[in-house]
Specification:
This protein is an alpha/beta fold. It has a single domain (about 1-180, about 220-260, about 300-310), classed as NAD(P)-binding Rossmann-like Domain (Rossmann fold), CATH 3.40.50. About 40% of the residues lie in helices and about 15% in strands. It has helices at about 10-20, 40-50, 65-75, 100-120, 155-170, 195-205, 225-235, 265-275, 300-305, 315-330, and strands spanning about 1-5, 25-30, 55-60, 80-85, 125-130, 175-180, 185, 205-210, 215-220, 220, 255-260, 265, 280-285. The strands form four sheets. The protein has a seven-stranded parallel beta sheet with strand order 3-2-1-4-5-6-11, sandwiched between helices. The protein is globular, with a radius of gyration of 19 Å.
Length: about 325
């Protein structure tokens, strides 16, 4: 089986590719190395995959936001399933460069839907985000909750992806699963995320910026748990049986939350990083930033019931694992 992974040079994409390759799948990975964060890190992830799976991993440098380039790059490939993880990430950056989000997250998503349609793929799994819930005060966030009040363009594009996918599931009966990720962290993570930024600052003796004076809750989810959820979803496509599915759809399309189901205070994250680094943090307390939400908290009942998903990695295990990778493999 050949599986296409978009965003293969990304954090989640690299780990999902490694897991699928590890169980004997053939993977075609695509990425265009946008410089939103370190291109060297992205290239290192691809090199990591190529060094371990040279015979079954093919990487293509292509922008899936360019329909013609995407079609040409994959013209000689027979794609059976797609894991669409590529996107322009980041809540705050969407205030500065909205065009990048429209290109990758809106036009790019349509291009992947068209690819799935014309290649008759058996299942398309795509990345959504907990950001679609907006500034909700009632927790935990449930897939059945309304998600029509996004507070950032990034969140709006992710909700648009879900709605466009439903249209394609209705018109063309493409089996699809949308996954709303909740604050993913771990080895090979993203340098724009709190776990990386805080760890780097603590180890270098620099102050860290802590927004809303530290009063923020996040459902921090370790990468191994996320990968497990993605593969469970990929292996169990939704049925085209006209029965209601998570997200409220009766098409072969469903939505799931993937989170740790345990929100943590930002101050507790800092404490865990201090312990793992054996150093105290210098903290610069700041007000809430535009586009940020106060809390995220995943209700995972749907994916647990349907697929048996159960996160197993607490922050007390995941944070030391990241710090160890950062010290020994990335900065050594």
């Amino acid at each position: 089986m050949t599986i296409l992974i978009t965003g293969a040079a990304g954090f989640i994409g690299m780990h999902v590719a490694a897991a699928l390759l590890g169980r004997g799948e053939r993977v075609v990975g695509i990425d265009n190395f946008t410089p939103y964060y370190s291109v060297d890190l992205k290239r290192a992830r691809v090199a990591h995959l190529e060094a371990r799976h040279a015979d079954s991993f093919r990487f293509l440098g292509v922008d899936f936001g360019d329909a013609n380039a995407l079609s040409q790059a994959l013209s000689d490939e027979t794609i059976e399933r797609i894991v669409h993880l590529g996107a322009q990430p980041g809540v705050r950056y969407s205030l500065e460069n909205p065009a990048a989000y429209v290109h990758s997250n809106v036009a790019g998503h349509v291009n992947i839907l068209e690819l799935a349609r014309h290649r008759a793929v058996s299942h398309l799994v795509y990345a959504s985000s907990s950001s679609v819930y907006g500034m909700r005060s009632d927790t935990p966030f449930r897939v059945a909750d309304r998600a029509d009040t996004p507070i950032s363009l990034y969140a709006a594009t992710k909700r648009a992806d879900e709605l466009m996918s439903e249209t394609y599931a209705h018109l063309f009966r493409i089996p699809q699963t949308g996954l709303r990720f909740f604050t993913v962290y771990g080895p090979w993570g993203r340098p724009d995320m709190a776990v990386w930024k805080f760890t780097e600052a603590v180890l270098q003796g620099r102050p860290i910026d802590v927004y809303n004076h530290g009063d923020m809750l996040r459902d921090f989810t370790f990468i191994d748990d996320i990968v497990n959820g993605v593969i469970l979803a990929l292996d169990h496509p939704p049925l085209d049986d006209s029965q209601p599915k998570p997200g409220g759809f009766t098409t072969p399309h469903r939505l799931y939350n993937i989170g740790n189901n345990r929100p943590e205070q930002l101050t507790d994250l800092i404490g865990a990083i201090e312990t793992a680094c054996d150093r105290k943090a210098q903290i610069n307390l700041l007000p809430m930033q535009d586009g940020d939400v106060y809390q995220t908290y995943a209700d995972i009942d749907d994916i647990s019931r349907d697929l048996g998903f159960a996160p197993t990695t607490p922050m007390s295990v995941g944070i030391p694992a990241f710090v160890r990778w950062y010290r020994e493999d990335w900065t050594s």
